[in-house]
Design a protein that fits this description.
mainly alpha; single chain; 83% helix; 424 residues
């Protein structure tokens, strides 16, 4: 909180990011509500779900483009203005009859907004690095993570409530969303001079005569170099492996939980739907508290030690489901696991920002997140397949073995490295 109050540039940057994230988060759930009103809601909702995953696949490319952007500040202003214009267009067309053509245009609006939002996120990384002192980077990233998770936690619920209060008037909702992005653009534009004082505008040669195939070749060479940077920094390389497996476990866990609640009703709190929502909310609360209120004792420990605790608690969650099946222990361990995730994520972010060359920061970060996100659909599909073809219990058992192997690897890793970004 102190970094937010004392650092004017950081305050402006975070506020503009908050306004744009509110716009995206509110629309995500309302878009599903809109899709549900179509004649074939299953097809419409499936299309929304699929489209929403595409920007994650493009992380690698967007990070590269962000590093090659000459004037990041000017581009961010353009992106926010572009996002605002998208929702003004949505406001104009959503009043027409519910045709699949209109729905296709709305899908495109959602996709372009999410894609440009991801691009904007990578553009802001070097700005954050320049406006925040190195010793305060972890605190800044922790505060950012906590605030963004609060928005994610409450935004969808608020969006669902708001659309009901607006009596499903999607035109008014589109106007509200456009206003959020417009305010984000205006605030960033107001503070642009202060950002320019600390962020260098990259000067590049004109490339009108450059052959397209050479651009592709250069992209390949640069991407390979950035990947080599990631591999050369051994801690980041190991974090990439650990987080990839952790994401596989997490995605499998969240896919198996609904099946488990359906089979073992004594694990539920209230209804089936409420229990699933509560499970996700409990972990999100832990993540938020871990990011915003980290205990000094754990902050002074290495990132490797934080990860050991997180994986250990995940093993406890799985063991409880297999053996004890106590719902109170389940939610307690889930909360604690989320806490250590919230504690470790900003520290890894700040470590990458500190140790990676600025001209490759967005690319290396995007490669890191692209790799660890690849295991998410794999974990979900694989363990749901096992659960449906063999049994839920066997699926949890395989997941437990993988978790114990990862815990063993993390303990070995902690003997070799002790990564404390606050002391670099």
């Amino acid at each position: 909180m102190n970094i937010f109050l004392k650092n004017k540039n950081f305050r402006y940057l975070l506020t503009t990011n908050i306004l744009s994230v509110i716009g995206i988060t509110l629309f995500d759930l309302v878009f599903i509500v809109y899709a549900k009103s179509f004649p074939n809601p299953d097809l419409a909702i499936s299309a929304v779900t699929f489209i929403s995953t595409l920007p994650y696949i493009s992380d690698f490319l967007l990070g590269y483009v962000a590093d090659k952007t000459k004037d990041r500040i000017k581009m961010i202003i353009k992106i926010r203005a572009f996002q605002a214009s998208l929702y003004f267009i949505f406001m104009l067309i959503v009043g027409f009859s519910q045709s699949w053509l209109v729905f296709g245009i709305v899908l495109l609006i959602n996709f372009l907004s999410d894609l440009s939002g991801t691009y904007s996120t990578y553009l802001t990384l070097p700005i954050t690095k320049n406006i925040v002192e190195q010793k305060n980077l972890t605190s800044a990233r922790s505060f950012q993570t906590g605030v963004m998770n609060i928005i994610d936690l409450t935004g969808k619920l608020f969006g669902a409530t708001l659309i009901i209060l607006l009596n499903y008037n999607y035109t008014l909702f589109g106007l509200l969303n456009a206003i959020f992005f417009s305010l984000s653009c205006i605030l960033f534009w107001i503070n642009r001079k202060n950002f320019y004082e600390v962020v260098e505008v990259v000067k590049t040669e004109k490339c009108e005569n450059k052959i397209y195939i050479k651009k592709i070749k250069q992209f390949y060479i640069d991407s390979l170099n950035n990947f080599n940077i990631l591999i050369s920094i051994r801690q980041i390389f190991h974090f990439t492996f650990v987080f990839s497996i952790m994401n596989l476990i997490s995605s499998a866990q969240f896919s198996l939980i609904p099946l488990t609640f359906n089979k073992y009703e004594h694990l539920q709190f209230g209804s089936f739907g409420f229990s699933i929502a509560l499970f996700g909310t409990i972990e999100s609360l832990g993540l938020i508290i871990g990011a915003l209120i980290p205990f000094g004792y754990f902050r002074n420990k290495s990132i490797e030690s934080n990860l050991i605790m997180e994986i250990f608690l995940t093993c406890g969650v799985i063991l409880n489901i297999i053996c004890i099946q106590d719902k109170f222990i389940l939610y307690l361990l889930t909360f604690l696991s989320g806490y250590f995730l919230g504690l470790s994520n900003p520290r890894i972010d700040s470590f990458i920002m500190i140790i990676t060359p600025e001209n490759s920061l967005s690319s290396v970060t995007s490669i890191f997140y692209s790799i660890i996100q690849m295991t998410v659909p794999i974990g979900s599909a694989l363990f749901l397949l096992i659960a449906n073809t063999v049994s839920i219990e066997f699926s949890w058992f395989i997941l437990l073995i993988i978790s114990f192997l990862l815990l063993f690897f993390s303990i070995i890793l902690s003997k070799k490295y002790s990564t404390i970004p606050e002391k670099l």
